[in-house]
Structure formats: structure tokens, C-alpha cells
Design brief:
38% of the residues lie in helices and 17% in strands. The protein is α/β, with parallel strands linked by helices. It has a single domain, classed as Rossmann fold (3-Layer(aba) Sandwich), CATH 3.40.50. The protein is globular, with a radius of gyration of 16 Å.
């Protein structure tokens, strides 16, 4: 997987720290990850992160997650894959921030009473190109990690099979990222 980060030491450090953040259930650094580039590479990287977080603790969401019923998916999730464009509607932006920052959110299941809880899910978004039209308040919370838009021909496919062989090394990256976060006190530089 290190091949994806050749000549991108800063992106690798940011990625490691975010992976460590996924393991850090006890802290909130109020950031989300934006993976940009080749769809196969970003999808494979997320799949490995999901294996480390626990596939039973990983969810896929879209703008529906901002509804009262949709937010229930966050109750036991550690990692959330967000599909679609970044929210622009002010109500959706507010809900997105509540999910990213770990504020209390209210959710309900059909025919059940509403409940309030803190979301611990770390959100990952996918883009072919880095977002340019997003609200600046959202981009301030974003950790942008870019991969090549197209992979070199010598890359093995499907990538997630190759990465599964490296999962011990990736778990080590996650632990390193957690240590870096603790040393720095967050993502700030």
C-alpha cells in the first residue's frame, strides 16, 4: 500500500493519523477524511480500514443519514462511508457537523421513542477530484488524502486482495497514527 503514497509523505502521515483516529473511540478531533483519486484505490483503502475497524461497525451512508431515522445507523458505528457530494443545504451541513464533531444527535426507529447519543463514527468521503465548491466551514474539517487519478499498470488488481495480505502492516500504520495523534494533540500542524 505504500506504493500509493510514493512521494506523498504528508498524505501518508495524514492517512496514518486518520486511521489511528478510527481506533481512538475515546477522543474527538472533529475531522473527516476525503479520499481523492482512483475509485478502485480509494475503495480498496476504505475496505482495509473497515476490516480494521470491524465490518460490523462500518456503515454506508448518503444524505438520508441526516434524517431522524437515518441517524439511527450511527448508533453503533465506528466508520462511515459517505456517498455523494458534500452537503450544501444549511440543515444538512449542520447535521454533518454534528456527526463529525461527535455532538449529541437525536434519532428514532419506526414505532420507537426518540433517543439521543453521541456518534463515534469517523466519516470518510470519496471524490475523483478534490472538492472545490464545498462550503469552507466543511473543508476546514476535512483531511484530504490524494491518490493518483489512475493507477500505474504494474498495480495488482483487484487491490483489496493485495491489501488484505498487508492488513497487519496497515494495523501497524493505524497504531502509529494513534501515537502521532497523541503526541500532536490532534491533526493540527
Amino acid at each position: 500500500m505504500g506504493k500509493l503514497f510514493e512521494d506523498k509523505a504528508e498524505s501518508l502521515e495524514d492517512f496514518k493519523m486518520f486511521c489511528g483516529y478510527v481506533l481512538a473511540d475515546h477522543c474527538r478531533y472533529e475531522r473527516f477524511l476525503a479520499l481523492c483519486g482512483d475509485a478502485e484505490a480509494t475503495g480498496a483503502v476504505f475496505r482495509v480500514m473497515a476490516m480494521a475497524a470491524g465490518e460490523d461497525k462500518t456503515i454506508e451512508i448518503d444524505v438520508i443519514a441526516f434524517s431522524c431515522f437515518g441517524r439511527m445507523a450511527f448508533r453503533n458505528a465506528w466508520l462511515a462511508r459517505y456517498r455523494g457530494k458534500l452537503p450544501r443545504n444549511s440543515e444538512h451541513v449542520e447535521q454533518f457537523f454534528r456527526l463529525v464533531t461527535g455532538d449529541f444527535i437525536t434519532a428514532e426507529a419506526k414505532m420507537r421513542p426518540r433517543i439521543s447519543f453521541r456518534s463515534r463514527a469517523k466519516i470518510v468521503c470519496f471524490f475523483q477530484e478534490p472538492p472545490t465548491d464545498a462550503d469552507t466551514s466543511i473543508t476546514r474539517k476535512m483531511i484530504l488524502v490524494s491518490f493518483p487519478v489512475s493507477l500505474p499498470e504494474d498495480f495488482e488488481t483487484p487491490l483489496h486482495f493485495h491489501f488484505e495480505e498487508e492488513k497487519d502492516g496497515i494495523l501497524r500504520w493505524m497504531e502509529e497514527g494513534l501515537e502521532m495523534l497523541a503526541e500532536k494533540g490532534g491533526f493540527g500542524r
